[in-house]
């Protein structure tokens, strides 16, 4: 990904933006899946390149497809978006999204992985409902939303297209003044996430006495 800073194009870089404001604000994340009892353990992996070769000592794509009730040849971006894998950290579940299936039956991931990592297969929930609930909560907490700067995972967009709710999601974002872009990884506090909507919601300008 290329970045532009002061008229220069940067590669393999990051831009840190510091903002000072009198507006009330709240940092948030929301996701639209819940864990199932199905576990998949990474038993062979190329951690440097984020490739899983085996899950439960079976070829990764075959074992994952079996866990979600599909054949390996049916796997693709839309099935990855609809059937995420999650890991439990500190009492909460975080998604580790699959990027693609490789010719050798391995799976490439967007996030860091390691041997011994225990995945939980997740089932999707209503994205429109969960996102609306979060925005309503933020609106109430801040006494009205002025602007939401948001980072929405590309897999959420694919999932919205699969379930034909893309137009309704766009309407919801306009209603709450959500601005931002689709991402291939989101940051929430110290966690690198996938398949979330993260961002900063700004409330109304405080009154001057």
Automatic annotation (TrEMBL):
Pfam families: FIST, FIST_C. Coiled coil: none annotated. Residues 60-190 form the FIST C-domain domain. SMART domains: FIST_C. This is FIST C-domain domain-containing protein. It comes from marine sediment metagenome.
């Amino acid at each position: 990904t290329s970045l532009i800073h002061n008229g220069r194009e940067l590669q393999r870089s990051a831009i840190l933006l510091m903002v000072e404001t009198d507006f009330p604000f709240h940092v948030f994340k929301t996701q639209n899946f819940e864990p199932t009892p199905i576990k998949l353990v990474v038993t062979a992996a190329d951690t440097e390149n984020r490739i899983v070769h085996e899950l439960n000592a079976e070829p990764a794509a075959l074992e994952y497809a079996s866990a979600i009730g599909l054949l390996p040849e049916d796997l693709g971006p839309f099935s990855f978006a609809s059937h995420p894998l999650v890991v439990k950290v500190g009492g909460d579940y975080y998604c580790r999204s699959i990027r693609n299936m490789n010719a050798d039956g391995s799976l490439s991931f967007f996030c860091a992985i390691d041997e011994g990592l225990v995945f939980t297969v997740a089932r999707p929930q209503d994205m429109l409902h969960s996102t609306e609930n979060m925005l309503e909560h933020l609106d109430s907490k801040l006494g009205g939303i002025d602007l939401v700067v948001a980072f929405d995972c590309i897999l959420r967009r694919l999932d919205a297209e699969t379930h034909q709710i893309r137009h309704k999601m766009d309407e919801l974002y306009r209603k709450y003044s959500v601005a931002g872009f689709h991402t291939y990884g989101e940051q929430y506090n110290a966690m690198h996430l996938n398949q979330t909507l993260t961002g900063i919601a700004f409330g109304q300008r405080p009154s001057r006495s």
